[in-house]
Specification:
7-stranded parallel sheet, 10 helices, 24% strand
Length: 271
């Protein structure tokens, strides 16, 4: 076994299987473990066979302790509750923890920050390289344009998505807020219904659409007097998230503990 030893959490899910495929196809990375929740029907199955890359001898299990002790990194697109537990284990093992889980609460982020004192944690609401480049551009445009330009973020995902706005929409909202040097939590508008009155200058609005099998569409609109600037991204295949997460894991290998994001991975801090 050579290369960075990686464990995939949620290995039987759609993203998990894509991550197994991406690791199989990437020089410098190897699958050393595959995890699923207790009671999953995938327990005991070969992760490679399940992902369609052929048998690799890695059986899916529900006990992370032994698996993480023999790993260099963990890639995690699961649920907030599972992610917090994994963050604590990654801190104990002193390994890289790549988090693509969305729907995390502020209290969850505090626990991840604590784990990042001992582990390299790379967390993003979207692991796509294109989305993170888009976030850098959104920050720059927001920084350049004043409050005469209203910011609206429109996102659409498949009917099965359970959190809203999407982690990507919030990522883009945070980028816009940083560009404007405002607090997103205090200035975001998540819903409009009935007689709302005029729009408040400087607010960042979100609109959420759900339907079909849409992987992920995002648009950031800067609406000014007589003109609009529209920046967008459309994900056509979930493999873009797997490739970005794998890039993040390889980037984090050997770095000092800390809570990083994809802007760090891509060198976009100065955009």
């Amino acid at each position: 076994m050579s290369g960075m030893r990686l464990v995939v959490a949620g290995a039987a899910g759609r993203m998990g299987r894509m991550l197994v495929q991406a690791i199989h196809e990437t020089h410098g990375a190897t699958l050393s473990g595959a995890l699923e929740r207790e009671g999953s029907i995938a327990i005991g199955q070969d992760a490679g066979l399940l992902a369609g890359v052929g048998a690799n001898g890695i059986s899916i299990c529900a006990d992370p302790l032994g698996v993480l002790a023999q790993a260099d990194g963990l890639i995690d697109f699961t649920s907030p509750r599972a992610t917090i537990a994994y963050a604590g284990l990654a801190a104990q093992a002193r390994i890289v923890h790549v988090i693509g889980t969305t729907g995390l609460a502020a209290s969850d982020i505090e626990k991840i920050d604590a784990a990042a004192r001992h582990a390299v944690i790379v967390r993003s609401g979207n692991m796509s390289l294109g989305v993170n480049l888009l976030a850098g551009l959104v920050k720059k445009v927001a920084q350049t344009l004043g409050e005469d330009y209203d910011i609206e973020i429109v996102e659409m995902h498949h009917r099965m998505k359970v959190d809203a706005p999407s982690g990507t929409a919030l990522l883009l909202g945070e980028a816009a807020a940083k560009g404007r040097e405002i607090d997103l939590a205090a200035r975001s508008v998540r819903a409009r219904d009935g007689h709302t009155g005029a729009r408040n200058a400087g607010d960042i609005g979100f609109a959420t659409l759900r339907g079909g099998t849409v992987v992920g569409d995002h648009q950031v609109i800067f609406a000014g007097a007589g003109e609009r600037i529209e920046l967008g991204h459309r994900a056509e295949d979930r493999s873009v998230f797997a490739r970005g997460a794998l890039k993040a894991a390889l980037w984090g290998h050997g770095r000092k503990p800390g809570h990083y994001n994809m802007a760090d991975v891509l060198g976009l801090k100065d955009i």
